[in-house]
Amino acid sequence: MAASFSSPKTDGKPPVPVWTPPPVTREDLAWAQLHTIDLSLLDDPDPEVVDQLVEVTKVAIRDDGFLYLDNYGVSLEQLHRQFDLAQYLHSNITNEEKDRLLWDPSTGVFAGFKRMRGWKREAGDFDGIEQFNFYRDEFAHPEKMVPECIKPFMDEITAFCDYLTNSVNRRLLKLLSRVLELSDDYLWDNIQSHDHTIGDGYFRHALFYPLTDADQERQKGVRMYGHTDYGTTTLLFSVPVTALHIFSPDKKWLPVKYNPGKLVVNIGEALEIISGGHFKATKHKVTSTPADQVEFERLSLVQFNASVGGMRLTPAVQSPLLQREGFVLEQGVFRQYKDLIDAGLPVPTNREWREAQVSTRSQIAPEKRKGGIQEVDGVKYGVDEFMGVRVLLPV
């Protein structure tokens, strides 16, 4: 039985205001119908229960690439403490620290502070999105790499991310390894970067400020354009303000409903490639909120788990699932990777792949991408290319 998260004590630390979750929308929306996975069932002594869990997971990632994760070991009270700390960071980081810790995505990473002026170090158009991203250096050297206000609480943030990495994500990868009919620790041992607290991934405190009508019109109702994540899994904590949308199997953008305490998990490109297309890298975007939530800030916590940086990903052809059912060649990054492999060309390393995208084309409007907008089977896609790999993402 997996141990539950044990949060460090708060005695002797500065007082932190409590984060109050905004009210949920009252609008009747066409919600995405996502499967819920009870992670605690992975430890059930009845093999039939575990087998059923594997089957439900297989359907969830085949149909959606997104799922809710429940009973993963963190209580709602412990989770809300992390939201308290994220709110505290954004409320207390100084202007001097914003400048000193300002990120530089041209390096290929999002480490440090993002101001509300676009996705480059140089200020661009106002987007109302503020972030602080914790990479391995922020955890290893908090004395100089994080805002002064959050230093007293780094033991809590570090313990939380360590639990997400070494307990939650490890168990999730065990479940996904079983879907591929491989050994329990195959993905953890061979694909997942897990040295240090976060490996090659990162943890994000994000705050979406409300936009004026003019800003919303300029951004055409989109806060973050449609994209897929680069790594293995993304652990996103469900929040009350509706803005996250996924691209459904019937090619529609559908909102993701708030489920208090649950993790919203999406599959990254690394697992789509490793699985030979059986796992879908989830296409998702962030939009403007429903009309009854436009005045509220959207506070978000996300952990992006990464594959080993120096690895060149190829399908796990030893998987009995792949041997039996072959590759799934639907539109996605695996299909484009396979074209390179079939041509005898080297695919990028994981680090090269993600850093090329971060450093050059992060959150570019679809019409400004290299291939512009193209229509495929009645769906409009923004078309780009990174390191010889063609990327199509729905508008």
UniProtKB/TrEMBL annotation:
Residue intervals of the Non-haem dioxygenase N-terminal domain: 36-142
Domain Isopenicillin N synthase-like Fe(2+) 2OG dioxygenase: 217-304
Gene Ontology molecular functions: metal ion binding; oxidoreductase activity
Keywords assigned: Iron, Metal-binding, Oxidoreductase
Alphabetical list of Pfam families matching this protein: 2OG-FeII_Oxy (PF03171), DIOX_N (PF14226)
Entry-linked InterPro entries: DIOX_N, IPNS-like_FE2OG_OXY, IPNS-like_sf
Membrane-crossing segments per the record: none
Region of interest called Disordered, as start-end residue ranges on this chain: 1-20
UniProt record similarity statement: Belongs to the iron/ascorbate-dependent oxidoreductase family.
PANTHER family: FE2OG DIOXYGENASE DOMAIN-CONTAINING PROTEIN, OXIDOREDUCTASE, 2OG-FE II OXYGENASE FAMILY PROTEIN
Record-given protein name: Fe2OG dioxygenase domain-containing protein
Source species of the chain: Meristemomyces frigidus
